[in-house]
Amino acid sequence: METNTPQLRGGGGGGEEEEEGGEEEEGGEEEEEGGEKEEEEGGEEEEQEELVQQEGREDEEEQDEEEQEQEEEGQKEEEQQEEEEEEEEQEQEEQEECLVVFLLIQLLGGSTLVRLSGV
Fold first, then answer.
1. Which of 3, 41, 100, 102 has the fewest CB atoms within 10 Å, i.e. the most exposed one?
2. 84 has a pLDDT exceeding 90
3. Average pLDDT of the chain to the nearest whole number
4. In this model, does residue 39 exceed pLDDT 60?
5. pLDDT for position 17
6. How far apart are CA 119 and CA 116, in angstroms?
7. How far, in Å, CA of 35 to CA of 27, rounded?
């Protein structure tokens, strides 16, 4: 039995060493957790960068849309002004034509009336 007792003691001591070794593993786990924390922080930073980039893209899209709307409005205004100018020119030409016809009628009409009256 005595031979068994020292083995148990030695075995117990070995167990303690394993426990100490286990503690080292726990320290290793802490290092792993620290690495995970760094990875999480790195992931959070990447997410923040992605959010910033996404917001920047959205801002650019909004600006592009606004610029496009302004360009369209400007084109519509230019087209409207051109149409108004064309209408004014047509009206002026019609008035000039009417004036010319009126004057011709007066000139020709007066002499025709004179001929018809025999004067």
1. 3
2. yes
3. 75
4. yes
5. 46
6. 8
7. 12
DSSP assignment of 31-50 equals HHHHHHHHHHHHHHHHHHHH
Distance CA 49, CA 42 (A): 10
| Residue among 91, 68, 92, 72 at smallest CA distance from 80 | 72
Counted residue by residue, the chain has a size of: 119
Residue type at 42? G
For residue 75, give both structure tokens: 């084109």
Distance CA 36, CA 29 (A): 10
Helix, strand, or coil (residue 103): helix
* Residue whose entry in the numeric block shows the structure tokens 């000039």: 96
